[in-house]
Amino acid sequence: MKRIRWTAALIPPRRVGLIPTWLFVLLALAAYLATAVLARQLVGAGPVATIWPPAAVALAALLLGGWWMLPLIILGDILAMKLTGLPTLPLAVVGGTVSLIAGVVLYRRIVSRAPLPQRFNESVRLILIVLPVIAAITAVTGVGALRLADLLDRFSTPMLVTSWWLGDLLGLIVFTPLLMALGARLCGLTGTFHSRKRGYAWERAIVPVVSIGALAATWHPALAPGFATMAELPGIHVVPILLALFMLMLWSALRLSSLTTFLVTPILVVAGLRLGLAGLASLESSAVIAQWLALLPTLLVMSATALLIEAGDRDRDQYERRLRFRSRHDPLTGLLNRRAFAEQARTRLSGGDEPWLLGYMDLDQFQSINDTLGHGSGDEMLAELTESIRTILEPEDCLARLGGDEFGLIVSGRWDEVGEQRMRALHGQVGKFRFVRSGQSFSTRATIGVTPLAGDPEDYERLLGTADTACIAAKESGGNRILYSAGPDRVYRRLAEMRQIPVIQQAIDEDRVELYEQPLFRLDGSESSPMIEILCRLRSDEGYLLMPEAFIPVAERFGLMPAVDRMVVRHAIEWLGKCAAPPRRCFINLSAASINDPEFTAFLIEAISDDSVDPFRLGFEITETAAIQHYETASDLIDRLRALGCLIALDDFGTGMSSFGHLQHLNVDIVKIDGQFVRDLTERPINEAIVRSIAEIGHSTGILTVAEWVESAEVVAIIKRIGIDYAQGYHFGRPSPVK
């Protein structure tokens, strides 16, 4: 526990919460004196009060205001003694002060740092530990002060200590929750106290009215003789009325708001006191005090039970509120989660003709920040960034975290100049944000896909998919931009591709691949049988074939190509092992993702090393782009495959700006000239110059050359004359299922 710095703690602030300090002091002092006078009026004069609410006023003032209230509480205690006709008792004043200091320290240590208990166990510790300790200290010191002043000759010390302790404890238990709740609201600290709103309107009206009526009846002159007569009867006759008062307390605790319960309980307790002690002129005799001591425990049990039931019900209500919040909000940022965002969107879709924009926002390269700073700092950055974005949102707008670094946006308006400006403001807010850690400043950018939020509630998933697809298309164009719908053709094409993902995944899971082959012929006729390139098709669960151009781009984009390549390699090697007349060389394509996947590389080497196939009958094709993107891993794989006896072909050669320079760094056996240079050889003279240059470099380095997309005899004649070694294309044969 932190040590109290008394010099600072005793200096009053300018304000207590939202109200000026002078007003807080005035209200606290007025409440202290007023409750002291009223307490002494309950049963006339006597050495001990039947109930002492000023202790609750002092405790609430200290918890809400601070230690600087201590001198004012001491002043209030002295004034209260003067007003109630008691002599000033220094020991009683000191005891009251010490009890409050002990109570506040104990409260903050074992109950709560907030000015009002929030949970049931906190209320239990307040009522059963803190308040009894405060009352015990004041009872001992108060009775000691009365003894020193020779004011208690007629009473036994144990009886007086007990009566004082019960009176103070009753006042503390009954009035402290009310004063703390009212004070918290008055000071604008309502965030520390959540009051339930339950029960019907007639309940919220009838319980306080009946309670106030019961209290007023005990003071009514016409009813006073009846109460006095009742008090002279055996105690059993008071029990039904006390039970009725208890039922009112329980009704309020179970059905009404916390503040109503805090108000009703002291009213009913005071009414019970007035009723139980009716007809008594004062507490001047031991017999009267004994009668009082028989009543007080009943009232204590009644009030404590009602307040603890209220605390348990409030605790459960807050727990349910936290569960509801967690079910609808992201735990890191506090934003709505995906499910709650969908509800908000569907509500707007069913809410009429008001225009809305639906946005899908993805942070660019946020993973690199996680990798640099760690995920803990990355989470902090996300939380601070979302707070920054919230500052420029309109009240009707909605921001949600859909997962990872992806967010959903609902912004009022159409996609016009104003709507676009609002989206750009959100985009710019992300760009301006800076996250500082270890003296370094980090930033990120955002890509946002936008579409109108229009249609029926059932259209939400489709609209979110459209916005998501627009975001993906914007990222593929470089990111850090806003793309509105991306054009229907482009968006729906992307949506069609995304719908292929489960089809491709299911085909992979169920091993539904079909191998095709296309021949590569030696142009000088020196080889009697051609080499072949293995091509693959996927068979859908509905029976139709997925062509490479339909599934390869999607598989590459969503990381499925290693699985596809693994399946093709396995089937091709199995086919070669069973083939009665295998081809001279069988080439299999490897994707960039597979080249960069250590697990795939290990699988490939192990598969080739199997005795069921001769590695000298295998070749592998790697695109020039893939080889350059993953140069180190590609070079290592090429060397390992060639060491086993496999040939390596560099596919799509010529597409890069520095293709010729790559040849001296990549240890390949064949280059396959990109088909776009071969197909138009008869129409574009520059293509012939490019193909001729590749052929000459191949001859000078010992690398074989293959012309792809050969579709006519005229092209065959040109590439023969140039000196190309092999040709592949529809002129020699279309892809067909392997035999």
Write a structural description.
Helix 20 (561-578) packs parallel to helix 22. The model is unreliable at 1-8 (pLDDT under 50). Helix 28 links the parallel strand 17 (704-707) and strand 18 (726-727). It contains 28 helices and 19 strands. The chain folds into three domains: 6-324, no CATH class; 338-486, Reverse transcriptase/Diguanylate cyclase domain (Alpha-Beta Plaits, 2-Layer Sandwich), CATH 3.30.70; 498-737, TIM Barrel, CATH 3.20.20.450. It is of the alpha/beta class and 739 residues long. It starts with 5 loop residues before the first helix and ends with a strand. It is rod-shaped and about 135 Å long. It has an eight-stranded mixed beta barrel, surrounded by four helices.
Reconstruct the topology from this structure:
Layout: H1 6-9, E1 15-16, E2 19-20, H2 21-41, H3 54-65, H4 70-83, H5 90-110, H6 120-148, H7 157-186, H8 201-219, H9 224-232, H10 239-255, H11 258-276, H12 286-328, H13 338-349, E3 356-364, H14 366-373, H15 375-390, E4 398-403, E5 406-412, H16 417-432, E6 435-437, E7 440-442, E8 445-452, H17 460-476, E9 482-484, H18 488-509, E10 513-522, E11 531-539, E12 545-546, H19 548-557, H20 561-578, E13 586-590, H21 592-595, H22 598-608, E14 618-623, H23 624-629, H24 631-644, E15 647-653, H25 659-663, E16 670-673, H26 675-679, H27 685-701, E17 704-707, H28 713-722, E18 726-727, E19 736-737
Parallel strand pairs: 8-9, 11-13, 13-14, 14-15, 15-16, 16-17, 17-18
Antiparallel strand pairs: 1-2, 3-5, 3-8, 4-5, 6-7, 10-11, 10-18, 10-19, 11-12
Helix pairs in contact: 2-3, 2-4, 3-5, 3-7, 4-5, 5-6, 6-7, 6-12, 7-11, 7-12, 8-10, 8-11, 10-11, 10-12, 11-12, 14-15, 17-18, 18-19, 20-22
